[in-house]
Amino acid sequence: MSFPIVYTFSQHLDQVVDQVPAAYADLNAGACPIGALLLSIQAAQRSMELWKTGELVIPKRPDTSGQFSFDNYGDKRTREGGIVKLVRRASKYLATVNNWDDNCWEVLYAEAAHWKGHGKKKSGRTSAAATPTASEAETVEQDEDGDLIILSD
């Protein structure tokens, strides 16, 4: 699995799921957090886009293209020549994630469990230990429809 996606998803588990009071924990028992995974994928993508030059480049206001917002990452409809087209930005990975079986989710949860708690910084410095090794890398492909295919070692 992709380290940035797994790490971001682990923060969702740590900061959201693990904070749900026990009285409400069973409400979504057994449901896979597809939305959280989709947001994790988009957040990782955004991070890589901001660092693509090798340095962090966030567009200055009033340019809002650097914001992680619905306007920049949500699905939208455009009109081209009188035809309305759906631009899939949030849901473009949905078909892939919907096809995950229980094993895929178990692998994600297991890998994310390793990173839970690492987002709580004391000094504001990033640890070198948070960098994945080459063996933790994954292959990412796209099928003929442009849907993301996530392959793990």
Overview of the structural elements:
The protein has helices at residues 3-15, 34-50, 70-73, 94-98, 102-115; strands at residues 76-80, 83-87, 139-142, 148-151. By secondary structure, the chain is an alpha+beta fold. The protein has one domain. It has a two-stranded antiparallel ribbon with strand order 1-2. A hairpin with a 2-residue loop joins strand 1 and strand 2. The longest helix has 17 residues, at 34-50.
Output the keywords.
two-stranded antiparallel sheet; alpha+beta; globular; 35% helix; 153 residues; two-stranded antiparallel ribbon
How would you summarize this macromolecular structure in one to three sentences?
By secondary structure, this protein is α+β, with helices and mostly antiparallel strands. It has helices at residues 3-15, 34-50, 70-73, 94-98, 102-115; strands at residues 76-80, 83-87, 139-142, 148-151. It has one domain.
The helix/strand series, from N terminus to C terminus, equals HHHEEHHEE
Helical element count?
A: 5
Tally of DSSP β-strands: 4
Task: Tell me about the largest β-sheet.
Answer: 2 strands, antiparallel
| Low-confidence spans | 122-140
Beta-strand percentage range: 5-15%
Q: Structural class given helices, strands, pairing?
A: alpha+beta
Overall mean pLDDT: 78
Compute the CA-based radius of gyration. Answer: 17 Å
Strand sequence of the main sheet, in spatial order? 1-2
> Which word captures the global form?
globular
Number of domains: 1
Distance between the termini: 8 Å
Helix percent band: 25-40%
Region (Disordered): 118-146
Biased composition (Low complexity): 126-137
